[in-house]
Design brief:
With 389 residues, this protein is an alpha/beta fold. It contains 13 helices and six strands.
Length: 389
């Protein structure tokens, strides 16, 4: 076995890819100087890397329990190593155990979510082996309150990537690289010019304003459920999305949805975060606290794509089943309300109030007790003199 310090296959294919296609910000708004309420100066930077794609494939297969991708011994061994890595994670609170900060930290789900989210972010953001090693060296010696030793966990991750690299290069990547190239070319030719208007429309509906960040959007062939995620990386928020089976307006909606997560993480809170706080304050059920703000992002992104890009677009939440996972009951209020904001008939603050009232109505105050005989409401009755005086 090659030493894990020489992942040669993680370098060679990377040089052949369009690693960075930067979208120019409009001349009217330089990056970092957004006028109030405007987001068209936000720069989404599409990119890919062999390392990110390999990690996405291994995580996806490990999550599904598939250790036989194309009957490849190297990939099978690496997937088992990823499963073993997760087995070293202590059980800590995950996305299914109660309200989470908005936006969600990444693609990981379940009781291991925080630690997988950290390792996902580390690999996806690094993009190559040398950067991965440098960033991993800066992690604290232990994680999860001292329950996980970082060094052995990182070593197992790097070994798994090394074991898988050759087979992935010779097999799965032969199909994955052309797919990612196609999506990057489509982005440059079709999506780039539409993004400022899409971002302005969606962010305006959600009351998002503030800085103009550069947000990397990393395209990989596949990644674990839910298939796209926003991460808080060392250099700020970034997006990762799988592109297998996702193209055109569907891909635009997913990118826009995740960009809204990243915008809220980079700037001040908008309607989703404020709504979550208000729902929690009013004592809404934990699922609604967690999922109603997320359902709002689905609806807002789909509305913007339908209004500005593809009038017949069907929401990704509906076509790919996300609305079937408990979000359906929200749509009867969400979709018309978002449409009213897009048409200029409702403000973002009005949207927040409408949703909070619909799904967590404020408690009705107790009525004042009826006044005693001879007593005016709000004024005590006259006191009678003591007997005999």
């Amino acid at each position: 076995m090659r030493p894990c310090g020489a992942i040669t296959h993680l370098r060679r294919p990377l040089a052949t890819l369009p690693v960075l296609l930067m979208l120019a910000a409009p001349a009217t708004a330089a990056a970092g100087e957004a006028p109030a309420g405007a987001t068209s100066c936000v720069v989404l930077e599409p990119r890919t890397s062999f390392l990110a794609s390999l990690h996405g494939a291994l995580r996806t297969a490990a999550q599904a329990g598939n250790t036989d991708i194309h009957a490849s011994p190297g990939l099978g061994r690496a997937i088992l190593m990823y499963q073993r890595l997760e087995g070293t994670f202590p059980l800590v609170r995950g996305a299914g155990d109660g309200p989470e900060p908005f936006p969600a930290p990444g693609a990981a789900r379940g009781r291991h979510a925080p630690l997988w989210g950290l390792f996902d972010s580390l690999v996806y953001e690094s993009g190559d082996e040398d950067t991965l090693r440098r960033r991993a060296a800066r992690l604290p010696p232990t994680l999860a309150g001292g329950l996980l030793e970082t060094g052995p966990a990182v070593a197992l991750l790097l070994e798994a990537l090394e074991v898988a690299a050759a087979d992935y290069t010779a097999g799965v990547w032969l199909e994955g690289e052309p797919l990612v190239r196609q999506r990057l070319a489509w982005w440059d030719a079709e999506l780039a010019a539409r993004l400022p208007a899409l971002l302005d429309a969606a962010a305006g509906t959600l009351g998002l304003a503030g800085p103009c960040p550069r947000i990397p959007v990393i395209l990989v062939p596949v990644m674990p459920a839910p298939g796209a995620a926003t991460f808080r990386g060392a250099d700020g928020p970034f997006v990762v999305t799988g592109v297998d089976g996702l193209a055109g307006a569907d891909l635009a909606e997913v990118v826009l949805h995740e960009a809204l997560h990243a915008l809220e993480a980079a700037g001040g809170p908008g309607v989703p975060a404020r709504l979550q706080e208000e729902l929690q304050r009013r004592g809404a059920d934990p699922f609604t606290v967690r999922q109603l703000p997320h359902a709002l992002l689905f609806v807002v992104a789909a509305q913007a794509v339908r209004d500005l890009m593809e009038p017949t677009h069907q929401p990704v939440g509906r076509s790919r089943g996300a609305y079937d996972r408990g979000l359906g009951p929200y749509l009867g209020v969400l979709e018309p309300a978002v449409g009213r904001v897009a048409a200029g008939h409702l403000t973002p603050d009005g949207l927040l109030a409408m949703l909070a009232d619909a799904f967590a109505p404020a408690a009705t105050p107790e009525p004042d007790p009826a006044p005693a005989p001879g007593e005016e409401a709000g004024r005590p009755a006259d006191t009678k003199p003591a007997a005999g005086l």
